[in-house]
Design a protein that fits this description.
Helices cover 39% and strands 25% of the residues. The chain is of the alpha+beta class and 186 residues long. Helix 3 (79-87) packs across helix 7 (168-184).
């Protein structure tokens, strides 16, 4: 069995309310084991015998669309990938430690090409900065994200890609919590 994290878009935002016990039951009904949710924003940890995260993304997205009645962007990462994402230093420490700064991680289905990356980087301002690494975009926001001109809607509209954002603290907490529990179970 391999452990995975699902980062779901459109869970408990925009009028789409899903209770975490409902979400856990949906994942269990797909045959996944050790299903847990982490905060109520669409983070699901589970184990599966599947070896393809792409296959898992499609299976889960299809089942959630049927069960919930709307499209749920689904982004799967193995725990090895998640550990790497949590450790990745996208920006210098001095930038991350400044007052009012938040680092977000955007999970994508596929890596973006150079043309799309250049377009993303054209959104850099005094407030917002970006780095691309693998299938993630790291967004350094120097003010409240709700006050920034950049957003998930801008990312999706201007770049034509679907994604979901998580605060980097959430990503690190998930990686640390479940990495530790997997070592304890050995």
């Amino acid at each position: 069995m391999s452990r995975y994290a699902a980062f779901l878009r459109a869970i408990n935002v925009g009028g789409h309310t899903v209770k975490m016990d409902t979400l856990r039951r949906l994942f269990e009904s797909m045959g996944f084991s050790k299903v847990e949710t982490f905060i109520a924003s669409g983070n699901v940890i589970f184990e599966s015998t599947a070896r393809s995260s792409k296959g898992l993304e499609k299976t889960i997205a299809d089942r959630l669309r049927t069960a919930l009645g709307y499209e749920v962007g689904t982004f799967i990462r193995s725990f090895a990938e998640l550990s790497e994402i949590a450790r990745y230093q996208a920006f210098p420490s001095k930038d991350l430690e400044a007052v009012g700064v938040t680092l977000y991680v955007a999970f994508l289905a596929d890596p973006i090409d150079r043309k799309t990356e250049r377009k993303l980087l054209s959104f850099r301002t005094e407030v917002d900065d970006f780095r691309v690494h693998g299938r993630e975009i790291y967004w350094l926001c120097r003010i409240r994200s709700s006050e920034s001109d950049f957003s998930l809607a801008v990312l999706e509209k201007e770049l034509g890609i679907q994604a979901t954002f998580r605060n980097s603290n959430t990503v690190r907490k998930i990686a640390a919590r479940y990495d530790a529990s997997s070592r304890q179970g050995r």
